[in-house]
Write a structure and sequence with these properties.
It comes from Methylomarinovum caldicuralii. The protein is an alpha+beta fold and 451 residues long. The protein is built from eleven helices and eight strands. A five-stranded mixed beta sheet has the order 4-5-6-8-7, with helices on one face. Strands 1-3-2 form a three-stranded antiparallel beta sheet, covered by helices on one side.
């Protein structure tokens, strides 16, 4: 049932129940003490009256002239608090005096603290041989009235303390749980992808730590969404640029080459002389070779076929050889552990693209003299380290270096890996990538590593 209420309401209800139980226990103890006190007082008063009557009885049979005075004394004794005295003449009981109800005392309280009835009877002989019978009846009405006044004060004090304690706890809990609504509002904002929402500072240190963690999470999500959108725009841009470049090459290179081949073939048909035909055939062969080179370059841009045919190490070896040919003055040292060939095929292309992008960044931005590439399995991870001795950069300015590093990070993290950049001005770049080493069930490619 309590599950329907909020945590604050449930805590308040539990505290109220505890205070109520404490109040009831305290009230029960007070009632018990009052009942014992009233019973003790009435017993004491009844015993005192009995001793007074017995003291008169010990004097012996009363003469007639003293009996009347003694009866008057007993009647005055009957007006004592807590005791009622009745005289029985000639064996006939007098009508008992009506018990005085406690004034302004609730009936329930009187019933709870009223002691059991206490009645004593004494027979006083007279000299004429008669018997004067005296009945003593306990009457706790006055004591109950006094006890009610004291109990009212004590119960009022208990209720005041319990109520004050509950109000104090209610106020404290209200202030303690006041940030809950702000946190819930913030979570709803995150659910709606409003990552610019921030929580304010709270006076409570615990909630303040939660607010700082929430704001940090919101900042990370906001930055991640911004990076993802930037990457998406960049990927779309790169995709369109690649399509434009392929379309231009197909149009300019392939179209013009095919047109030239067609014209040469037409010239052979129009001029079937052996010398002219031989010269045209040579030009056709040259054009076809150019087409083959163009197609190989375009296919390599789309996907390196060597990766599927010869394996990852050979593909990386060919990649670094291509960069060496373009930049003869820069040393590239590639060391690829043969165990890397056991990596799952769908992950090998990602490793290839990471190394390709790292080399592109190094030659584009770092101006290095040496580049070292290491690939080696370590337990359940594939460790990739790419280090150059280029210009380096301030770590705080890495976000401004374009989409290369960001793309490599996204690629590594999408595979469940880790990406780390170590750099400083003049100290070059060191990229450390750890990828889960998921082995291929059957993979049989030779490994070539060059230095």
């Amino acid at each position: 049932m309590l599950a329907r209420f909020s945590l604050k309401t449930r805590i308040n209800l539990v505290i109220a129940a505890i205070l109520l139980v404490i109040t009831l226990i305290g009230s029960g103890l007070v009632i018990r003490h009052v009942r014992e006190s009233v019973a003790g007082e009435t017993r004491s008063a009844l015993q005192l009256a009995r001793e007074m009557v017995e003291a008169s009885h010990l004097q012996g049979p009363l003469p007639d002239e003293q009996a009347a005075a003694w009866r008057a004394m007993l009647e005055r004794l009957g007006q004592l608090r807590h005791v009622r005295l009745f005289i029985l003449r000639d064996g006939t009981p007098l009508p008992p005096s009506p018990s005085r109800p406690p004034p302004d005392v609730p009936v329930w309280f009187a019933r709870l603290v009223e002691p059991p009835p206490a009645i004593l009877e004494q027979a006083i002989p007279t000299r004429q041989g008669g018997v004067l019978r005296v009945r003593l009846v306990a009457d706790p009405a006055d004591e109950i009235a006094e006890a009610w006044e004291e109990t009212q004060l004590f119960l009022g004090l208990i209720l005041f303390l319990a109520g004050g304690c509950f109000l104090a706890v209610y106020q404290v809990l209200g202030r303690a749980f006041q940030p809950v609504e702000a946190v819930l509002t913030g979570l709803v904002a995150l659910e709606r992808e409003a990552y610019d929402h921030r929580l304010p500072d709270f006076p409570q240190p615990e909630w303040n730590r939660i607010a700082r963690a929430f704001n940090h999470c919101a900042e990370v999500l906001q930055q991640t969404r911004h990076d993802n959108r930037s990457l998406t725009r960049q990927l779309l841009k790169v995709e369109e640029e690649e399509r434009r470049a392929l379309a231009r090459e197909l149009h300019d290179e392939l179209g013009q080459t095919l047109s030239g081949i067609k014209m040469l073939a037409q010239s052979i048909r129009n001029n079937p002389q052996a010398e002219a035909a031989e010269r045209a055939a040579g030009l056709i062969a040259a054009q076809v070779d150019h087409l083959f080179a163009l197609l190989r370059a375009m296919i390599h841009r789309l996907r390196p076929l060597m990766l599927d045919d010869l394996g990852l190490c050979a593909a990386l070896d060919a990649l670094t050889d291509g960069w060496r040919q373009k930049h003869a003055g820069i040393a590239i040292d590639l060391r690829c552990d043969p165990a890397v060939e056991r990596l799952a095929a769908e992950h090998q292309i990602h490793v290839y693209r990471i190394v390709q992008e790292a080399l592109t960044n190094a030659f584009r931005h770092a101006r290095p003299r040496q580049i070292a590439i290491r690939l080696e399995p370590r337990q359940d991870w594939l460790r990739i380290e790419i280090r150059d001795d280029g210009a380096g950069a301030e770590p705080s300015r890495l976000q401004q270096r374009g989409y290369g590093l960001r793309g490599m990070r996204e690629r590594a993290e999408s595979l469940g890996g880790r990406f780390q950049v170590t750099t400083a001005p003049g100290a070059g770049f060191t990229l450390t990538i750890l990828l889960p080493f998921e082995e291929e069930e059957a993979h049989d490619h030779p490994c070539h590593a060059g230095g």
